[in-house]
Amino acid sequence: METGLIVAVAQIATGFATLIVAIFLAAQLLIQKRQLEIAHLDSVRELGFAARTRNEELILARLTDKSLLDAYMKLGAGLESPNDEETHKFINYMRLLYLQMINEWNLGVNDNNVEYFKGRLGTLMGSLGERKYYLTNGRIIIGTVFGLTNLVMLGDTVYEELEGRSVPLR
């Protein structure tokens, strides 16, 4: 009988030890899950910060490069006839701005916040020349090249709000 009692006590002790290990491991999983959530939030913040930094760099380039600023002002206003170099600078500068916005959208910066991207698109279409660029290039880059129909629809909405008319059909 003593052997049976010893075996029973050993089994109870083993079961109790297994339960303690299971509880410990479950606690470790919860701690690790929380750490991963924190790391994810940090990476999202870092991504947003990097996107804002890149946007600021693009704007700063326009402000510090006189020839780019002149081209931007001329084509943006849509009042003067630009030369080929000015047209090239404007088109490529706008392309960079659109690609930056598309990267933000694709990477989920600001969780694809509609109001944020409406603001970004509004900034990209603030002038007559920029709205013309949207129709001739920006819309194609967003919709055809990248296939972002939701972003095109948002862009069309912003265009219509700024222009006071629908996007012309080709």
Q: What is the helix/strand order?
A: HHHHHH
Report the uncertain regions. Answer: none
Q: What Rg do the Cα atoms give?
A: 29 Å
Classification by helices and strands: mainly alpha
Average of per-residue pLDDT values: 90
Compute the number of helices: 6
Q: Percent of residues in beta strands?
A: under 5%
Q: In this structure, how is the largest beta sheet organized?
A: none
How many β-strands, per DSSP?
A: 0
Give the overall shape.
Answer: elongated
Question: Considering DSSP H and I runs of 4 or more, what fraction of the residues is helical?
Answer: over 70%
Terminal Cα span:
95 Å
Write a structural description:
The chain has six helices and no strands. The chain starts with a helix and ends in a 7-residue tail after the last helix. It is elongated. With 170 residues, the protein is an all-alpha fold. The mean pLDDT is 90.
Which key features would you list for this structure?
170 residues, single chain, 84% helix, mainly alpha
